[in-house]
Amino acid sequence: MSFEEQTTRIERLIWFINNSNTGTAEELAQKLGVSRRTIFSDLEYLKGKGHQIIFCQTGKSYLFIKE
To answer: 9-52, pLDDT tens digit by residue?
Structure first.
């Protein structure tokens, strides 16, 4: 996968999180056309960049925590 494809995937992931529209990791993987493992890797990447991310059981979506 090229750098541009990875960047586009991360941008789409951020869009889904910002819009509270990720679904579960499995659903998000389907939306982005990647494996569940890649989703967790991408979430860890974003956390490493300083983003605080949680999964909301009620809304069934990953969310950014804003301080």
So the answer is: 999 999 999 999 999 999 999 999 999 999 999 999 999 999 99
* Residue 44 identity (one-letter amino acid): E
Range of the domain at 12: 3-64
Structure token pair of residue 66: 């804003």
d(CA 42, CA 31): 14
Q: Where are the beta strands (DSSP E) in the chain?
A: 53-56, 61-64
What is the CATH number for 11? 1.10.10.10
Under DSSP, is residue 14 helix (H, G, I), strand (E, B) or coil?
A: helix
Distance (Å) of CA 19 to CA 53, 54, 59: 13, 14, 11
pTM over 0.85: yes
